[in-house]
Structure prediction request, 1488 residues.
Amino acid sequence: MKLLIINPNISASVTSLIGEESQRIASPSTEITMMTAELGVAYIETRFEAMIGAYATAELAARHAAQHDAIIVAAFGDPGLAALREVLDIPVLGLTESALMSACMLGQRFSIIAISRRISAWYRETVQTNGLLDRLASIRTLDQRVQNIGSIQNDHAEELKALCMQAIEQDGADVLIIAGAPLAGLARTIAADIPVPLVDGVSSAVRHAESLFALGTHAPRLGSFAHPPIKPNKGLSPAIQNILNPQA
Amino acid sequence: MKLLIINPNISASVTSLIGEESQRIASPSTEITMMTAELGVAYIETRFEAMIGAYATAELAARHAAQHDAIIVAAFGDPGLAALREVLDIPVLGLTESALMSACMLGQRFSIIAISRRISAWYRETVQTNGLLDRLASIRTLDQRVQNIGSIQNDHAEELKALCMQAIEQDGADVLIIAGAPLAGLARTIAADIPVPLVDGVSSAVRHAESLFALGTHAPRLGSFAHPPIKPNKGLSPAIQNILNPQA
Amino acid sequence: MKLLIINPNISASVTSLIGEESQRIASPSTEITMMTAELGVAYIETRFEAMIGAYATAELAARHAAQHDAIIVAAFGDPGLAALREVLDIPVLGLTESALMSACMLGQRFSIIAISRRISAWYRETVQTNGLLDRLASIRTLDQRVQNIGSIQNDHAEELKALCMQAIEQDGADVLIIAGAPLAGLARTIAADIPVPLVDGVSSAVRHAESLFALGTHAPRLGSFAHPPIKPNKGLSPAIQNILNPQA
Amino acid sequence: MKLLIINPNISASVTSLIGEESQRIASPSTEITMMTAELGVAYIETRFEAMIGAYATAELAARHAAQHDAIIVAAFGDPGLAALREVLDIPVLGLTESALMSACMLGQRFSIIAISRRISAWYRETVQTNGLLDRLASIRTLDQRVQNIGSIQNDHAEELKALCMQAIEQDGADVLIIAGAPLAGLARTIAADIPVPLVDGVSSAVRHAESLFALGTHAPRLGSFAHPPIKPNKGLSPAIQNILNPQA
Amino acid sequence: MKLLIINPNISASVTSLIGEESQRIASPSTEITMMTAELGVAYIETRFEAMIGAYATAELAARHAAQHDAIIVAAFGDPGLAALREVLDIPVLGLTESALMSACMLGQRFSIIAISRRISAWYRETVQTNGLLDRLASIRTLDQRVQNIGSIQNDHAEELKALCMQAIEQDGADVLIIAGAPLAGLARTIAADIPVPLVDGVSSAVRHAESLFALGTHAPRLGSFAHPPIKPNKGLSPAIQNILNPQA
Amino acid sequence: MKLLIINPNISASVTSLIGEESQRIASPSTEITMMTAELGVAYIETRFEAMIGAYATAELAARHAAQHDAIIVAAFGDPGLAALREVLDIPVLGLTESALMSACMLGQRFSIIAISRRISAWYRETVQTNGLLDRLASIRTLDQRVQNIGSIQNDHAEELKALCMQAIEQDGADVLIIAGAPLAGLARTIAADIPVPLVDGVSSAVRHAESLFALGTHAPRLGSFAHPPIKPNKGLSPAIQNILNPQA
Prediction:
């Protein structure tokens, strides 16, 4: 299958990190294309940044969906995920949703370990959108401003492990989600030190994308994820015009 | 006060309708500026369309916020509302949120009367984002495809009244929200025929905007609605760059 | 408009405090009448005291509603608010509900800062009645018994500010509600020191009363806030008899 | 034990009905005293009427609690129940709460069968106050205005049975609560015709009152049901003054 | 009445403890039979152990139900409670459910005090099954591995009292449930030292069993607790075969 | 990978059906072993039957887990799923949970289409255990008693399709779960006729089992899914003894 992974942030280094982690888990027959948002911010922590990221992702998805079998929106918080599902007729996955689905099959309550305090409100709202707030034991985050998004895993490894142990021992987590594309792969490298299963959004999303493709469901023609009704539009890019009005 | 009302749809006729209803309720000292999205669709019914509308609204808000005291995002569903609150230091209001706040002060449970079946999932999710799903008695909608967004109030007056009565008698609504900018003013024109209070999003938003301005709270410097951390960005319009990085 | 503000407590000094704060925010055309409960306790902290306060408020409201355009029940916890809405055909508002509505338009999650530990259960239940428990980040309260209800703002200013900061930094509040009529005005005086918006119940209620009056909805003739069915009664004051059985 | 049962309505005929049903289920050693509210309405259907009923019940409870071992507030909706628990040091029970507790031990989801449409909002709120809304399958009610509260069981027996069957077959109820003091005893008389357990509030309350008395817990000295802090009061009856300020 | 109390654990000493506490509270006319699971573990702390305990309890219940008027499943967590209700036509009660029902009539929010950290997830899920998670203030537990299940009350009396005080003062509990059959009777022995009501599962269950028997409801013939449809089975004990297929 | 699929029912024909559907979706490298419960009933519809099925599944799982890489509990309702997760150190999956996870990635709200009215309460409780009740649009079921569990798909194809359309059009489902092992494969055969994605529990579980195996998380050593503490046991099969006390 042809899998398109779009980083809604503009950080090419994070795109590389996601790409490596994706290749590691993907089935041999899965061909991965990585893309980086052409507009937006270095890493999304807030609702406004997510809104921009959603728009940037939509543009890339609209341009390239026809050549792929599934798309992953590769920022935790899943910017634009539900929106894209309405207009594309291939599976669209997000890192948070995918990680939550994996976590739910590994335990009852989960915590999220994240890179900045600021990001936690947005993550909490994403869990709520997924309807899973009752299973969220906690969100624990690094406390300081992110200095270097590329080296955050190495710079803060011990603090991140300490957050993991607090989530287990104080918050009652059965399983931990290591959140945010910049932490892709961390779940794997620290797994041996942490006494509960660790879930990684990127590898979960790649596996679940392969599964949805294999399960082979068709796009909805009714319900709230059917294609939006055709109607006048204005000022949109050709690609977005085209997915809104395919007949045109 | 100077109030900017942005229609996230591209329909100038709907902008006019919103403008008239706004003028009718506004205090004499409130000076209203109406704007219409420069890009987007004729009327927003889905998550994807709302995402586009949020982006279009953000551009206008970013350009013009400095000259205003409050902004109303004038589409039911409140596209981009929470996002805009993070980057602007004036009050930002939405039609749904404003209508919900009015409704909560007039009864315990409310129903929403809307223009199309398709729109109801998006409205339901907006109520859920507001945390008020337990007070939602029902969403009742016209059944057919919208033909003419400009004349929908007249074309379907009797059906809309019938939906109102069903919401009261069958669903237990204490108060009704007439939803969607194309129905602006309908609450006023049919009020005498409906035996519970009717809430209109536009007039609610104008009044609540005046109230928030009068209450005079300052913008947050901490918490999840403080300004996003300054960080590299790319590909954004000058106005959006400027609100993301005001020092620059 | 003629606005009646009833203090459900017997403390005339608190009535004065509420009156001053109300005058400060009210529109020039709003004429405010202040009344103090003729029976009850010095300040309501519990469900039993609230029940007494509701009854005392009902008596005053029944006597004076006909000469007013809206009524504010001016104790946090909103004693008798929903009850009064059933029998009066003008808007009735409460401090908690009004503060919650303002807070919801300024952030996603709010904390309540209050004057006594004992009062927090009652406040929590009021938030739950409003259906907004999921958005309540915390209730933080002074720890000691209230000594002097009149001077509590001055006596405990630093502790109250510290509670505010804890709610923001530890509980994730986006906005703070300064609760309880004895703290009326505190939100204004400490606003500059607190990095998130502060909401005051009294000024919110005055503004929202003006808005509901301006929106001009009529009283319900159906639904759970329509007037109670006429039926035999006994032992009630003339005023309450009259609102229960207006034809008599 | 000495059990005081207070009818918060002024209808002596309903008090008799409650008394008969109570005697039927009470243990031989339980001595029952029946009292009827000295002020209020013929039967409580609304929040305002419940507020009046709570006040009337409080007066009787305050006067007579010292001579009893437990008190039942004998109107569905439990007017003043939580309030009374704060000031009395004997168990206080309500019909709704007691019926809910019985129902929860007989099935997972329950429906409530009630005498008037108007009453259903108040009942729903009572279930919500008990935190049991998720287990409420439905509330089904007679449709017309109550004509004769004393003969309602006979006048509407067949309709009430039909409501029972609808709740089972259409709403998924495992157990039914026959609600409202005017229906006391109906659960017993129609049980043979209804294929799920029927719960009666009055007999449940009498049994649970005996249980709480037997379990012998003491009144709280801390927490939100401890006695309210002693403070100035005014305009209250001697009995209520006495329970608010026992040392005086 | 003839009451069968089944200990789903294999610990005869705990059965004795339960038996003593049951006799102390039971009415003179209640004849109690105690039984201990014939298979299982020393004390249930986990979902797997509960599943085994449910099966062991079902076997004893199936064998002996016909000779009894009610059955108590005497392990906190209520293993198999809902399952047994489907196949037996006498009341079946559990310690957790019974304690929750008592607690709900004594306060609004309750905490659970338990013997091991490990047990708290299972208890939390039991409260959730009862639909009462919103009223759960906290679960507080002893921290160390249980050494001697028989002497745990004496070995840890002071720690247990400290947990009680923390639940009241830090978590906002109005009432405390002392959980787990090995703590049967502790509520009684430490009641004088704890300033809120303490609820014991065993004595609550005995009283509520007597009440359900007295209320005399019949077994359901419809709804989700009616007897399972008759169908082929295999490999089951004669007793279980018999309750599944009574005609056979 | 070696995948063990256990049918908790005793119906070998259903085991075959599950096996066929599993083979169809499984990766070439997945080696599937099918087993049928040695004790239990023909098909599980109730809590008691599920409890028996859980026990029967546990016995087979305990015997054979060591030779496999993952286990699927192949009855909708997931009997014993959480219990088995505690004692096995390989992934354990269930049909309901797996179907829910697939459905959540294909839409926001889902309905369940099932084979008998009686089964719906158990399914609803399973969704609730998964914390996803807010996303459940409805459960729609065939109305009559199941006659022939083996041919149910053919006997009722038209009715099942009609239920699908009702769930979409009347209940607002975005995606449908075809529930119950006896309906395995139906999602595939009717997909072309139904305008929203259809989810099948068996194929979802096989794919998710492969994913969890590929993700390679280790078994928890802490938290509520760690192995139960070692303690005395009695009367258990050698296999179950062995998984409870692996050192023995």
